């Protein structure tokens, strides 16, 4: 251990998205390759000696207690836990961080030593994983509000790969097996419950961790919200959502270069007649079992919406990734709707 294939794979995956800026500490991690990366994991992150690093992924993350603070993280999956190596700017981003972190005063701010915070969720504490619409994100839920994290991969391939790796390491856990099912006769086994319909698209892994996927009701709820924003002019039955993608709205700041602060996370929804931007709550829904009251905001909040018939032109940037699109509408002058989309979505 480790195999050459694994070393090559985690080296290839160890790349920070080019459109997001991170602190010096995470830039250092992104510069590690092969054995150096594995040694860094065992020397600085791993909690037990015999755990193995199985997967690495860069993703934006949200915490349940700070739903408005999206931060870049290096996500490391081992045979014992999921580690979120966070940008050190996260500590100062929100006053409520004292709930999550107990950081002692240090004298290393003016030195060449860079400090990062690492949030750990042990696999034995993992209870469920909720996959978002069209595999654009997933939420990991543990035993309390402190153990709920959403990874905004904005990429179905990264989500799918992480799910495969997570299921593989969960299969290694030594947990008490479920009790043997009680023998049933033919009529009770096949006469009542064999409806052929999958409820909530819920998969219970052998480790007893639930993997929950979106069902038709979530698409229906989204279509209903979109129809409401269209002032009821469209029949809900004929409304088709053509595209759902997590992207960024680009805020132009005169005289300054594009940076992380100019990219505002948005959910883009395209129908046959309209283009919408929503502020979506990716962390609070569905409600955790311990939640005593509903979230303070709706899952979807309309940020902008335009009619396709008012679309004048679409401008495409020259960069390869991420792809920048500018939608210019003629209904409002001097107001452009700008989106960053990855090239993956053009091939579908």
From TrEMBL:
Residues 241-347 form the Nischarin C-terminal PH domain. Transmembrane segments: none annotated. Residues 114-178 form the PLEKHM2 PH domain. Keywords: Cytoplasm. It holds the Pfam family PH_NISCH_C. InterPro entries: PH_domain-containing_M2 (IPR053015), PH_NISCH_C (IPR057714), PH_PLEKHM2 (IPR057288). It comes from the Eukaryota. GO terms for biological process: Golgi organization; lysosome localization; regulation of protein localization. It is found in: Cytoplasm. One of its GO terms (cellular component) is endosome membrane. One of its GO terms (molecular function) is kinesin binding. This is NISCH protein. It comes from Piaya cayana.
